[in-house]
Amino acid sequence: MMKSKFVIFFSFIIVIIFSGCSVQNDTLFQNDSNAVAAKANTVVSNQEYQKEVSYEYKIQPNDRLSIFIYVQSGAGSQQMNSILTSKNTNTNTLNQENVGLLVTQDGTVRLPLIGSTKITGYTQDGASKMLITKYKKYIRNPYITVEILNQRVIVVGEVQKPGIVPVVNGTMNLLEALSRSGGLKDLADRSEIKIVRGNLRHPDIRTVDLTKVKNLTYSSLLLRPNDIVYAQPRRMKGINKAFNEAAPFWNLASSILAPFVQIKDLHHWDR
To answer: Which helix (H) or strand (E) covers residue 222, if one does?
Structure first.
């Protein structure tokens, strides 16, 4: 009986050790000083929040653009004819890898009449106005629209459908991104959703606690294109995984010690 208790105790210790390792291995964006860092809801000031509300994405290298350029068909005519249509007719917003015009590494796109044109640093509306000014030198009353096709956020972790979520309305909030990913799984830690933003060498990592309304008032649920949303697992997932990993050892130890436990029990009944 003592040996069986020892096996149970020793197995429990093994599970605890494995669970700590499992939590560390399954959790992304850990702090070096503490693999399982203390939860801290990121506080966003009112001034910073107002900047996020008014934020507009600016065109960057490797973006894909839809550019429509229209001109009048003749003098005094109200009909507009297209001289450039760069948007693919495929309406599947998840497949935007090869549609539109690719912005080169030097921030330019090549367009009819005006050639290679610097376009990075402009918002969609700003790029339209800039191109209209340039085309007025060649055509009368041009009408131009610019749309950024590949705006998206990346959702990973404990969600039903991790992957790329397109930003179709120019902006998106955290709840919408999670909903488009099928929602959170049962083992997702709803009190510690991470938002990773900016240069990955020097990322800005925010923590959002979705379980408390009070914490939401101090946070910002607004996302920007190219943000990474990470729903990290609860510690219970690590414990469950540890049990599964320790199961072969448990079965082996039980099979080895079972004869001794049975003999001990027989001696006990003989008395």
So the answer is: strand 222-223
* Least reliable range by pLDDT among 32-36, 142-146, 231-235: 32-36
Contact 146, 67 (CB under 8 A): yes
Share the mean pLDDT of the chain. 77
Q: Cα–Cα distance between 112 and 102 in angstroms, integer?
A: 15
pTM: 0.69
Q: What are phi and psi of 253, to 5 degrees?
A: -65, -40
**Which of 216, 150, 154 lies closest to 181, judged by CA?**
154
Q: What does the CA dihedral 216, 217, 219, 223 come to, rounded to 10 degrees? A: 80
Number of other residues whose CB lies within 10 A of the CB of residue 9: 10
The two three-digit tokens of residue 188, written as one number: 């997702």
Residue 7 and residue 255: Cα distance in Å, rounded? 11
Domains in the chain (CATH in brackets) are 2-55+151-236 (3.10.560.10), 64-148 (3.30.1950.10)
Q: Which residue type, as a one-letter code, is found at position 169?
A: N
Q: Which amino acid is it at 199? A: N
